[in-house]
Design brief:
The chain is an alpha+beta fold. It contains 3 helices and 7 strands, in the order E-H-E-E-E-E-E-E-H-H. A 7-stranded antiparallel beta sheet has the order 1-7-6-5-4-3-2, covered by helices on one side. Strand 2 and strand 3 form a beta hairpin. 20% of the residues are buried.
Amino acid sequence: MTTVTESVDVNVPIGTAYNQWTQFEDFPKFMDGVESITQTGDSHTHWVTKVAGQTREFDAEITEQHPDERVAWRSTGGDTKHAGVVTFHRLSDNETRVTIQLDWEPEGLAEKVGSAVGVDNHQVKADAKRFKEFIESRGTETGSWRGDIARPGA
């Protein structure tokens, strides 16, 4: 299992950063390799990605979500095994630290080599930077979902 962690400080209020992150169908606007995401329910999404010329599809379930705090997920089907969490930290009224942690299982030689030389770290860092540019250039979120999903067993 490979773990990648990246933080980025964005110059928007915590609610704006969080609300934008809940707009999964907008991820292709700032995440390289994400072709599309379809929201299939409050806590379920379907992803299509293309990395290194390889297209993958999978479903993901939001396993925990608390407004202005965190969104956690895990894959539930398809050919990709991963889980992650994004946390939001108020730095000031108009600045938020967004921390992304992604755990995934590289498959095949290309993904294993890419992970070994840090391609995944670079990708997450670049996606975080593009999220910062996206939300700061807009100044407001494209939508929001403020629902709360309790951690299983909580």
